Amino acid sequence: MDLVLWGVLPYVSITLLVAGTVWRARYDAFGRTTRSSQLYESRLLRIGSPLFHFGMLFVVLGHVVGLLVPMAWTDAAGLSDHAYHLLAVSTGAVAGVAAASGIGILVYRRLKVPAVRRSTLRGDHLMYTVLLGAMLLGLTATVLNSTGQTGDYNYREGVSVWFRSLFALSPDYHLMAGAPLAFKLHVLFGFALFALIPYSRLVHMFSAPLKYLFRPFVVYRRRDPRLTSNRPDRRGWERVS
CA-to-CA distance for 227 and 231, rounded, in angstroms? Predict the structure, then answer.
């Protein structure tokens, strides 16, 4: 079971992520949107959306540092283990609470506003459940680990090393076998979320309008009434817009 969960399942999740994203890009390019419901309600959206997006940005950055930067590198930089964990817990907790609060507001909005609720797709319920579950489990693991409820477990010597071993195509799944339950559940929900991204509204994260930054300027000219006052009035289909 450990081999299946920590040695096979991650590659299945990444395969679904990559294959689904490529398929959506080729055959459903115009469907990769958030299906915005701002027209139906904007007050709660203005609060929940920035909280969620900015919180998730720092959550992702924190995971990148915590999982991909080896412990030896921070030690060589002169950052002690205590200082690292203090910095990680303080910033990670703030970012996690902001992201969880934001998604909570968005879920409340989707449930309580009739027009928004009617625009909710069936897959959205699963997506919101997995997303919120991954956040809450991550916060739970952080609290338990920082308060000593997981003993002397150091995720940088366990989960992080296992995660980096996935890139070498030689997963050290035995490291995950000894991880606390909260970390295991958080990782499982995380990979489930990866697999769901291309098949939910979360796929819009790959649809950044970068070409918009380099498009030519649109020039608007005010019509001069002196040039058009003597022109004969033409029928609608003959007019030039």
Answer: 8
Predicted confidence at residue 227, as pLDDT, reads: 58
CA atoms lying within 13 Å on the CB side of residue 168: 10
User: Residues 188-209: pLDDT tens digits?
Assistant: 999 999 999 998 888 888 776 6
Contact 103, 128 (CB under 8 A): yes
Q: What pTM was estimated for this model as a whole?
A: 0.79
Average pLDDT of the residues in 149-171: 90
* Cβ neighbours for 177, distance < 8 A, ≥ 6 positions apart: 2, 6
DSSP output for the chain: -HHIIIIIHHHHHHHHHHHHHHHHHHH-GGG-S----TTT--HHHHHHHHHHHHHHHHHHHHHHHHHHS-HHHHHHTT--HHHHHHHHHHHHHHHHHHHHHHHHHHHHHHHHSHHHHHT--HHHHHHHHHHHHHHHHHHHHHHHHHTTTTTT--GGGTHHHHHHHHHTT---THHHHTS-HHHHHHHHHHHHHHHHGGGSGGGGGG---GGGGGSPPPP--PPPHHHHTTSPP--GGG---
Name the nearest CA neighbour of 92 among 61, 69, 50, 115. Answer: 61
